[in-house]
Amino acid sequence: MKYCRFCLRVNSKYQRGNKVEGWEKIAGGIYMRRTDERVCSTIYMLDGGSGGRLIIDSGDGKMPIGFVPEICILTHGHYDHTGGVEKNWEEIYLHPQEKKDAPYILVPKNAKPLEWKTKKFAQFELEAFHTPGHTMGSVCVLERKSGVLFSGDTLFAGGEHGRTDLQGDSALMRESLKLIEKIPYRLLCPGHDEIEKRA
Ligand SMILES: [Zn+2]
Ligand SMILES: [Zn+2]
């Protein structure tokens, strides 16, 4: 039995050795791609048609996405989310409070500080929420029209939250979970494992 190093949840797919290839549609224009063979984050992609593509997290880099995204938003700095960022990507955002010297952090050199609250991209309307706890620079990103919330390693399906012992903070995590509770999302899309409709 294997555990995800970051969320400490048993990854059932590990045991079956399943590999999920390609992109799976989860909402209008929103797709996900994930591997369950190793510690690698799910990559989410917002397809803006001729406006290009935006991705949430980049995976660990062992699963190249095969295109250059217009924008890449990193939910936090752990390498399994940031390792896929390529040098030729131009618009990459990571929260400025992410600690560069914490364990498993890998900050791409070309990342810019995520200092905006809302961002329009093609037909999508994004809103960023700073949700420290798992790491100090963790964010959740809401796509307002679809109600999809990209929660990184802060909140997982089943109500579990990410570990806080890698220079995170459990008191901040509690505050962040309270904040997430108030976000009007309908579909939770975490950085690992299953996505989940809000009850
Ligand atoms: Zn992770
Ligand atoms: Zn993490």
Can you list the ligands bound to this structure? zinc ion
Spatial order of the strands forming the largest sheet: 1-2-3-4-5-6-7
Reading the helices and strands in chain order gives HEEEEEHEEEEEEHEE
Largest sheet report = 7 strands, mixed
Average pLDDT for all residues: 90
Low-confidence stretches: 8-20
Number of strands: 13
CATH class: Alpha Beta
Q: Rg to the nearest angstrom?
A: 15 Å
Beta-strand fraction estimate: 25-35%
The number of distinct structural domains comes to 1
**Share of residues in helices:** 10-25%
**CATH topology call:** Metallo-beta-lactamase, Chain A
Number of helices: 3
| Separation, N- and C-terminal Cα atoms | 29 Å
CATH superfamily heading? Ribonuclease Z/Hydroxyacylglutathione hydrolase-like
Looking at the overall shape, the CATH architecture is 4-Layer Sandwich
Shape assignment: globular
Going by helix content, strand content and strand pairing, the class is: alpha/beta
Structure description:
By secondary structure, this protein is of the alpha/beta class. It has one domain (12-197): 4-Layer Sandwich (Metallo-beta-lactamase, Chain A), CATH 3.60.15. The chain has three helices and 13 strands. It has helices at residues 12-16, 79-82, 170-182; strands at 24-27, 30-33, 43-47, 53-56, 71-73, 92-94, 111-113, 118-121, 124-130, 139-143, 148-152, 187-190, 196-197. The protein has a seven-stranded mixed beta sheet with strand order 1-2-3-4-5-6-7, with no helix packed on it. A six-stranded mixed beta sheet has the order 8-9-10-11-12-13, with no helix packed on it. β11 (148-152), α3 (170-182) and β12 form a beta-alpha-beta unit. It starts with 11 loop residues before the first helix and ends with a strand. Mean pLDDT is 90; it is low at 8-20. One zinc ion binds at residues 6, 76, 78, 134, 153, 162.
